[in-house]
Amino acid sequence: MTSAQTSQQFLFVDKSVFLPTIDNTVAQPHTTHRERAVELTRALGIARARDFRAAGIPLVYLKRMTDAGELVRLGRGLYQDPARVGEDAAHDLAEATRLVPNGVVSLVSALRHHGLTTQLPNAVWMTIPHKARTPNVRVPKLEIVRATGEVLTAGIERIRVEGVEVPIFNVAKTVADCFKHRRQIGEDVAIEALRDALRQRKTTASELMKYAEIDRVTGRLAPYIKAMQ
User: Is the pLDDT of residue 28 over 50?
Assistant: First the structure.
């Protein structure tokens, strides 16, 4: 069969299939909406409805895919690969991050991640910009504190939970924040966190004082550090 005859054979194929190239091979069809939805969810860990919309995937596909078990609807506008649901005990941190993209996991939730408290927080604690709108989120439950400047941006680490990049304050910043917000979480929790952080050598006195200065709690934190050394 000649090259011209081969081209004629593919003249009326679906538009998603390219015509043969000069070496008489046929290119692969474009990925489907379903395949793109799966790829997007796996790439983001937890995808929002707006992510699918931005990728040009009609939202009607989400209903079909959840009905077929190809996606799991976590809550309003959040979707995840079924293979990853419940994969990590810190799942709520990932979900909260996708719902509040301008927030940082902090205080009791950060203490729990760093192994510095025996408390099981009944909400995800997050710090958000001072002028940001209060998140309208029911699940997971959130506890919100506000900050500006370095109090908001200093000491942020990034961890991965079920494929989601989660911003969270490091050990020293978390301990300093606990003293700053001691009335909300309890001063006993802050003192316990400080004691365990030093005992387990997860931070140093100089690093703690660095963030205490940023949080303006140097006078409150310094006597405890001195007593514990």
Answer: no
